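A favour, since you know our structure tokens better than I do. Just paste the record in under my message, thanks.
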Amino acid sequence: MRCPYCKHEDSRVIDSRATDDGMTIRRRRECSACGKRFTTYEVVEKLPLMVIKHDGRREVFKRDKILNGIIRSCDKRDISMERILNLVNEIERDIRNTMDREISSQDIGRLVMEHLKDFDDVAYIRFASVYRKFADISSFLEELQNMQQRKQREHGKGTEAHETHEKK
């Protein structure tokens, strides 16, 4: 493996460990010429997944587009990069588990929103405002009301289950 610092072609592995549920191997390497350390990742080659855009064009799936969208949605929130990366991993896993070689950009957007609902309310609304192209404040308010009703239903179910458990 070529050293990213001095471009020397000889390095040695000093540590290896599996990541991403065993789908990736992370290797710490040390350059035999300059002694600097760097990290490499070994992943299983995946068949390309194609995204069908709104206008019918097709492009290769880019995980970074999801990552960047979620990072923007989480801007100035107290959310660690590790949590964001785990969320992106879940979303990508769900996309690839469909076993389809093509997916529409609308389906990807819906999937991201579905995951963000339980991840962070503010990030969800920020992403939804871009994805759904809110035209005005009433669109925004409608989505907020839908979120609030969903939270109340979920809270009600949890309360009912708790009350039923206490009666027993």
